[in-house]
Amino acid sequence: MADSVLYGWEKGSFSSDGFTRDTYRRGQGPGVIVIHEIPGITPNVARFANEVVEAGFTVVMPDLVGTPGRAPSPAYMLASIAKVCVAAEFTTWALAQTSPIIAWLRALGRELHAELGGPGIGAVGMCFSGGFALAMMVDDSMVAPVLSQPSAPFPISRRHGADLGLSPADRMEVRRRAEEGCQVLGLRYDKDRAVGTRFDSLRELLGDAFLAVELPSRHPMDHAVLTEHRDDASVQRVLGFFREKLLGAPRDIS
Q: Residue 82: which residues within 8 A CB-CB, separation 6 or more?
């Protein structure tokens, strides 16, 4: 199944900042890093990534947890959640901290931009990785950050549910980038408890640079905007954002 889901993707690896992770790459054009949600690179994550490729981009998918190509199931979800909770590279419980894996993602982004050129790179994070693209804004090469249902740190308290997963120093740099004009696209279902009140925190930090897409929940379990609980219009909004920021296409005002 994994072979068919990832057909046409080139498997590689990348090492930096004490981490080595497999990567999957496909496409041509400016770089976009697609960071999977829990439980891993599922068929629907790969479907979305293929759409980004078809829109004119070089896409790199890091493999951070799970089995690439495997479909979700309750047992698989629980196993991946358990790994994310205890792995040193993710700060899923701590407040006001940037996950260690972000240094690796920033380095991956810098290498991709140095190779491909252009105005910069884009990235989309989902669920536990939803805030990763925000933290990658510390690098000026990140010009198209997308946050889909950002859910870490896990909302075990009100403070956790409002936290953006940024150290104080990174928070200042992200604010600077926003003040200089770097926009951030965020997507969520409005009754998704996993997101907590982070969209309020994003508005406070980013001001008018935060472009919020808040969809009416169709089902109490709606969560994964771009994949398992896909909203087609939101997928197109993300592709339009990448085209605008990385290809100079007219702004998508839908």
A: none
